[in-house]
Hints:
Elements: H1 18-41, H2 48-63, H3 71-103, H4 109-116, H5 119-130, H6 137-154, H7 160-164, H8 169-191, H9 197-222, H10 230-258, H11 260-265, H12 269-282, H13 288-306
Amino acid sequence: MQSAPKETSVGLPAAVSTQVATGSAIVCWLLAAGVYIAAKVVTAEMPPWALCFWRVFIAGLLLLPIIHRHWSAMIGLVRQRWLSILIVGGLGFSISPALIYVGLNYTSAINAGLLIALMPVITMILARFVLNEPVGTWQFVGSIVAFVGMAVIVTRGDLWALIRLDLNAGEIFVICAAVAFALYTVLLRRAKYPLPGLPLLVLLLGAAVVVTVPFYVWELLHDERSVLNAKGLWALAYVAGPGGALMYYLFNLSVQALGASRAGVFLYLQTVFIAVLAYFFLGERLLPYHFVGAFFIMVGVLLVMFLKPGRAR
């Protein structure tokens, strides 16, 4: 009888096969795609900041026991760099998802899923200015191509709408969410917090709770949807459990086994999963402009990710 696999100090298996890690990454982004569907389903019953607050609060609580050996280090880091942690965690796990939830009040889950795929391109641009990372010729071309795809989706194939400023507020919110998460990614790289992945994630979720509280309180006072009903509770159970704590755990597992770059590539499965789930659960349809926009975005992202400045010709 084989012994159980050894675990790291954060509760993750010390040695994970490539097949298990790949499966974890796929399931991770499938669960993440489900969050968009759940948030879209309850737009009439649950306001965005309530969904955001309870998701990060419950997910953080569920993950907290796993990283108990790091509690003292986490507390020490908070004492030293509380403002930095508050800004980074707030951007990544409060502001960005809440903007997506707001956007889903006005646009389709498919549009949101396609636009959020712009994050690596926006991250590259911000890293150029914040971290002084080089941008090669092909990466510059890729960013232009990706933003053409964004324009196609935002204008629903009618690029003259940009001139008329006839734009959907939902897509603008989602693009702002992508910018917020890209800024989170860049600031996280710059901060170089001395904690392993999962304890750091829980710490940032805690920071997101703090940032979300004022917005959630405002919603309780001003939004008539602030009382949770049965549908809202089911959605919350999903986004906090499978779509929150479990998804974060699987992502950290895949990063530990595959490395950040290889694990990050699986992000683009989320866009596909969102489209499929939106078709079956929301009745949304892929239209010609979706395919055109998705093509430009994917080509642009591939140029940005795989043609590094040193390899550009």
